[in-house]
Amino acid sequence: MSMTSESEEMIMPINGVDSPSIDDANSGGNVGGNGQLKKGPWTSAEDAILVEYVTKHGEGNWNAVQKHSGLARCGKSCRLRWANHLRPDLKKGAFSPEEERRIIELHAKMGNKWARMAVELPGRTDNEIKNYWNTRIKRRQRAGLPIYPPDICLQALNENQQTENINTFSSSEVLHPGFIPVTNFDVPDFKGFEPNQQIYSASLLDIPSSSLLDISPSSLLPQGIHSSYPNKSLTSTVHPPKRLRGSEPFICGLTNTIPGGIQYQNSGSSPIGQSFVYSSACDHNSTSDHATLSSIVLSGSHAGLNGNPSSEPNWAMKLELPSLQTHMGSWGSPSPSSPVHSPDSVDTLIQTPPTEHAQSCNLSPQNSGLLDAVLYGAQTMKNSKGNNGYNHMTGHSYLHEAEWEAYGEQLSPLGHSSSSVFSESTPNSLDERRFADTFQGYKIKEEANNLAPMHYDDKAETTNQMIFSRPDVLLASNCFGPMKDPTKDHSLLKGAIETYLGDELSRDCKQMDTGATSATQGHVRDSCTWNPMSTV
DNA sequence: AACACCGTCAACCGCACGCCT
DNA sequence: AAGGCGTGCGGTTGACGGTGT
Q1: A410 CA vs C8 C1’ separation (Å)
Q2: Tens of pLDDT along A156-185?
Q3: Rounded Cα gap, residues A246 and A228, in angstroms
Q4: How far is the CA of A17 from the C1' of C11 (A)?
Q5: How far apart are CA A335 and CA A165, in angstroms?
Q6: Domains (ranges, CATH) in chain A?
Q7: Enclosing H/E stretch for A402
Q8: Which SMART domains is this protein grouped with (predicted)?
Q9: For residue A18, which nucleotide's C1' is closest to its Cα?
């Protein structure tokens, strides 16, 4: 909607664009005669009054505006009007590409923290950003495109990982030589998910992989949880929000809405810890090399989290699209074995139907697409070995937003939904494979690049990190659910991973199998070694 | 021309937090 | 400590305009 500037409104009070129905400040159906406050669009006259008042008295004390200026608006409304439209430092007009890019990055980091994002974008309001994002989300959803470009996802993932490492070290008091503190970003939280969207991890993706992993024995204890994921350390140091709302969790999905309404941070009680114990049991006797593998089980065991295998965690119910939430409708994309999606159904695109793979391993239908992604990724990787198509990244970002958008545009329905791209052609279409290859290749390289400075000399460990910080893999873990048959499940996944990464990982997977089996017995052993970062 | 659909935007609402008394 | 008040934040809604049928 074209919003004229406040000055314009003041100069041209007539026929204000944003005052379609009322031009008289005191007319209009929403204002009552008995001192009732007016609602609805602001008129130019009202704007003028407000501007004058604020100019004279400054911001704040908004209730006084109504009292002293005669405006029939509540304080909140005045504040909102001023903040979103009348403030002199507002930047009007469409977002620039740079701003758009920034918004995406910020959302990947922060989730729906519009106000904090606005701080990072001078002249822009939280409302503006929120509207933009929601519009963008809808557009991409409709097109079946991922919300975040891969490079941004990975960037955020890496940052998350680094931040976790900080917390890991702080909690374990073990400093990694190559550790580089990253403190000025806030980890997004995962308040929830939209019911019609795949959970690809909105929460889990955002959960720093190692934060899931680096659960030391102490961290399983109430105080340990606190020490491991101190909120304060996550608060932006650059633009500290005036106030952090209740949910500024570190472990996004888990922190905010542990099933059953348990707040992670204040959970002194055992359920969380038990959840971790149970859900990550798979690797509890394993070495750090396999810690990452545990994340699969951990993130996958909703059952472990709420003790009810059939119940869906709260956080899965509503999608905030927090950081790194990927709409695997595109990323994971329909696997070759997946049914072809209807081009006109984004939901079906996003929620990949269960595949034979999924069904074969007691997979949660909601998450089967993830395993699909893994399996298909493995297949793709296998097929594309020797194909350097995805190895061309030279810098930090493999796909820049422009490229990504361009890519998206290819997929977008200017008549073609992304699903149509996948469905119009054969499941093995070049585009589809290219898409998968692109991301996979990027991921591996990216992870390797970022972990290398961390002195991850152990190749295998690095490999594990690479894999399991992968959103889709993390999420694919969901398919394991209650872990009725860990061996079977792991072998299935292992196969995919072996193909995916080769022998190095295979070796680790073998070890993991052992660990997983014993770990499902629910014993936490040496959690110090559990933390991959603490094992130097 | 009429209608339906969709995207965009402004505004509202409920809730939560911090401060003050 | 408890309650009131002011403020900020995020989700949602409704109006409007553009576009397609």
Answers
A1: 40
A2: 677 666 655 554 433 333 333 323 233 333
A3: 18
A4: 25
A5: 34
A6: 6-86 (1.10.10.60), 142-519 (no CATH)
A7: helix A401-411
A8: SANT
A9: B10
